[in-house]
Amino acid sequence: MLKATAQGIATRERILDAAFDTLRQDGFANTSARAVARRGGFNQALIFYHYGNLIGLLLAAMDRVGEQRRLRYEEVLGGPGNPIEFASRARLLYAEDVDSGHSTVVAELFAASSGNPELREQMLARMKPWLEFTERLLERFLAGSPFASLVDVRAAAGAVLSLYLGMDLLIHLDGDRSRATAMFDAGERLAATVEPLFGGDPR
Amino acid sequence: MLKATAQGIATRERILDAAFDTLRQDGFANTSARAVARRGGFNQALIFYHYGNLIGLLLAAMDRVGEQRRLRYEEVLGGPGNPIEFASRARLLYAEDVDSGHSTVVAELFAASSGNPELREQMLARMKPWLEFTERLLERFLAGSPFASLVDVRAAAGAVLSLYLGMDLLIHLDGDRSRATAMFDAGERLAATVEPLFGGDPR
Questions:
Q1: Which chain A residues are within 8 Å of B110, Cβ to Cβ?
Q2: Predicted structure pTM score
Q3: Do B108 and A114 touch (CB under 8 A)?
């Protein structure tokens, strides 16, 4: 059994950092155990000792940041606010996803999962909490608005996640971040228009 | 110079069929020149003779169906109609994309393009006509509605394409086509709601 010594934890952090940075800088296709070990300056046997295999390591590297991101999404979108405020918070959160490298790592692993059944299963499992979070958010947001009975929350949450992943991958491929900026601008304009239909009270 | 003999055309059709079917059935990761040649029952040297390299062949195989699909989209969405009719036509077109295998081949090549710069450049170039088609469609559709001045057509077309690609890849990964059905149901309900805001005349 592995002992969670301070040194063991430090080693794992170093391996996770190297894996995350390699995925982010070089892409999945160039992220071999050897490339990760070279970047981090450690023996690649440590990857298999601590994470079983390379896919296990890459998922752990994504998860470490992903969990922080989800808590941050819950914090920022969990408070009361009107549609305009929600639209500008969504813009802020996406900018953080980009700056942290999370959006790049998600795009790389999402795309790679098409050709790797083990990765695919794990990536799909990781979408569930995001889908549930989005469903809860939409339910709370629509409550009391004239849209509540119109919107199928499960379908809408699937569309929101698809839009995020599709846009993220498209921006990852062509490097044109102005796509996201234009979409958030449009979202804020739309939010300002529907604003009067939502109650003025904090939700 | 290649002579466009009847036999040459028949050979190319056979190579394109084998490439399309291999991508659709086995995925990009398993689509080698050898696998395509084996499926089609021809010598793999023919691939390089007719298409230069494997990526060139896979793009040609996607394009052959893709061009038919785009003409079909223009035909079906190009006529007059109200929002409800457009929503049900979009559902029909997506069902055809799935049945023809086009949605699978697009999902495979879109995902694979993340790890292949040559493929990425070609895939991005192929999105341009779809973006322009979507922009024209949105412009025509919004004209005369109260949304015309609200919607940034370029941003909206990017969002529509992102949603299509993200949903297509997600369904490709988890095999859950009910996601699309639920979204089209929701789209038709929404269309019925906004219907009165659009003019009753054919557009």
A1: 111, 169
A2: 0.90
A3: yes
